[in-house]
Hints:
This protein is mostly helical. It is 56% helix and 10% strand. It has six helices and two strands. A two-stranded antiparallel ribbon has the order 1-2. β1 and β2 form a beta hairpin. The longest helix is centred in the last third of the chain and has 34 residues, at 143-176.
Amino acid sequence: MTNSSARPSSIRQLATPDAQALAGLVSALDELQTVLTCCERLIAALARDGERDDLTVESLWTTALLSYARCFARGPLTDEDVTSTRLRGEVLEWHKVLRKLRKHYADPSRNPREQFTVGAAQDAGGHAAGIAVTSTPHAALDDTTVRQTGALAYELSGIVERRITEHQDRLRRATASMSVAELEKLPLIEVSPERL
């Protein structure tokens, strides 16, 4: 991310709108990479017929949905970005489904796996004979759903990567014209030497 191959001696914090936008884009790219990783692992997990670990599947799917939704929460990506991808079909509708699924899986008051109902069990004479608890499982995650989500995350990653490059170039030009005194007025970011 620096403009030379030499290791920087220090890093100064930039608080300009461009710098904040770049941080948001890098965060969105990280979220999209998480979605892609979850989708890769989900495809492998769903392929294990009979040995499917439902807890792992739910965990990966929930993480993918939460990460996807965060890309749109504060504006790094918009619905227009979704429609500008090279994907065919009802891409915007799929995006909206993913956002609804995120709400479903993150809802603190509902079970995302099953819906439970309680009823009065009747005997042959029609009298209450007990209490019955039934459950209806929600639709199981399938390979097509995961692949569609991964394809959308991949396309959006390309959009974000291009924007990151544009913002980096603008910031590089802006900071190149700053004097040493101006740079040293900026807050120092503490970074461990191995991360420089």
